[in-house]
Amino acid sequence: NAGVTQTPKFQVLKTGQSMTLQCAQDMNHNSMYWYRQDPGMGLRLIYYSASEGTTDKGEVPNGYNVSRLNKREFSLRLESAAPSQTSVYFCASSGYRSYEQYFGPGTRLTVT
Amino acid sequence: AQSVTQPDIHITVSEGASLELRCNYSYGATPYLFWYVQSPGQGLQLLLKYFSGDTLVQGIKGFEAEFKRSQSSFNLRKPSVHWSDAAEYFCAVGAGGATNKLIFGTGTLLAVQP
């Protein structure tokens, strides 16, 4: 039982490049979330998926897209990376009607 | 709108000393409250949660928190801090409504000196 897994762990991009961050959970959770963490700002919600087949914007969605591929997987795509997207990205999941979220280990992204 | 405030950005305590990290929330109804811990380079781990009932909740690693409705607070405490407790601590509140979103505070970074 791996919980929430994220790939890659580290990534360096040049401005304008694209990439997809992958997230998978094996807890049969309905809801999944993408956050970014920046110093002094805590965790800010980018997008979330309340259930398979649905996605919604969070607090800071601009510059990102998501796909809920199936119940297990929720990916985050940066179409044209910008230095302002340099951050640590966390994926999380929670069960049906539960606020209790379980987090992945994070992806540290640097955009130069 | 719901919000969470952690007034202390950085706290330093001596090993063996007691600890209290402050958290204030803004929420109209009975809140769902959480404390998470993040060790350096790691993801967030749930320390404890409050949904209802006893206002003093126990968590992992010897931590506890007390819900005080009159003060809109959910402070985290530990009687004796260990060096391994050095980490960043986040308070969170359930956003309410039809979603399971959490609203996080900006975190308190705890340093432990020998």
Bulk shape of chain B: globular
- The beta-strand count of chain B equals 12
The average pLDDT value of chain B, as a whole number, equals 93
Helix/strand/pairing category of chain B: mainly beta
- Counted by DSSP, the helix tally of chain A is 0
Protein chain pair with the most extensive contact, residues per chain: A-B, 26 and 21 residues
Quaternary structure annotation: heterodimer
Helix content of chain A: under 10%
Give a quick account of the main beta sheet of chain A: strands, pairing sense, barrel closure: 7 strands, mixed
Description:
The complex is a heterodimer of chains A (about 110) and B (about 110). Chain A is mostly beta strands and about 110 residues long. Chain A contains no helices and eleven strands. Chain A has strands at about 5, 10-15, 20-25, 30-40, 40-50, 55, 65-70, 75-80, 85-95, 100-105, 105-110. In chain A, the strands form two sheets. In chain A, strands 2, 4, 5, 6, 9, 10 and 11 form a seven-stranded mixed beta sheet that branches. In chain A, strands 1-3-8-7 form a four-stranded antiparallel beta sheet, with no helix packed on it. In chain A, a hairpin with a 7-residue loop joins strand 9 and strand 10. Chain A is globular, with a radius of gyration of 13 Å. Chain A starts with a strand and ends with a strand. The model of chain A has no long low-confidence stretch (mean pLDDT about 95). Chain B has about 110 residues and is mostly beta strands. Chain B has strands spanning about 5, 10-15, 20, 25, 35-40, 45-50, 55-60, 65-70, 75-80, 85-95, 100-105, 110-114. Chain B is globular and about 45 Å long. The model of chain B has no long low-confidence stretch (mean pLDDT about 95). At the A-B interface, strand 5, strand 9 and strand 10 of A face strand 6 of B.
